[in-house]
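Objective 1b. Sequence-to-structure analysis of Magnesium transporter.
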Amino acid sequence: MDRTRLYRNGVLVKENFPIDDVSECVGDPGAVVWFDICTPVNGDLAKIGEELGLHELAVEDALHDRQRPKLDSYDSHLFITAYAARLADRRIELTELSIFVTKNALVTVRASPDFDIEAVVRRWDAGTDMVRYGVPYLLHGLLDHIVDGYFEVLQPLDDRIEALEDELFDGTADDLRERNRQTFELRKSLVGFRRMALPMREIVGGLLRRGEVIDPVLVPYYQDVYDHALRAAEWTDSLREMVGNIREAHQNQQGFKLNEIMKKVTSWAAIIAVPTLITGFYGQNVPYPGSGEPVGFWISTGLIVAGGLLLYRAFKKRDWL
């Protein structure tokens, strides 16, 4: 369901009114309008674009999904593309948001209803004394909620990576194939998440550099969002590096186990070669010491046992068996 709100002089005076009434509200210099559209069609945004004077390229970007996170500046408004994230069934789900920012109107366009817009509304309502700063305050609450959601995704991923590290060194996970699959999925998720979270730092930084957009009172609040976005980007890079180290350790472990197997096989092959050598020697068609006598059998048997024991002890001492 689409949501609408009208603030006048920092006070909420009307909400959930038809979007068709937006043009009347926007004409009031003391009014601030917010309306939210979920999964819009071309006609919805075209009408709003005409009423608010939105650029046709921004409207086109809002209608097409998988846009790059960005901040575009036009003559009469700003256009922001951002992605909210949440963790569902151990998978990162991203929701694209298109945001139009004018002097006295904030328009949010959601690609799907998965984004919890009610949580943003509750955040706005918790700061009633700040609503008087208008659209910049509403935009701050929205961006702050998006960035805070990144930490709710990164913390469980951090816990999973630590669990993989523990399994790697305590030997509790014997299925290397399953562990490699989990590591690969984690790295793939982090790469996709980084592609969406990293540009948030540039978006908030771009807003801070536009002094005419943000009231000086709100600059510390935007600076806090910028610090959180920077921390989320650095945390993502750190987790991606940790996953890469785990994957490399997996490969080293597999190589180490293969070397152990090869040492054992080679050692047993050397031990087996001793009786093969002796029996082959005594199988000659020429006379040799003890040929045709019982003593020759016992000498060959003794040589086999003695040679095998000597090699076994030598390999065992070097931890090859």
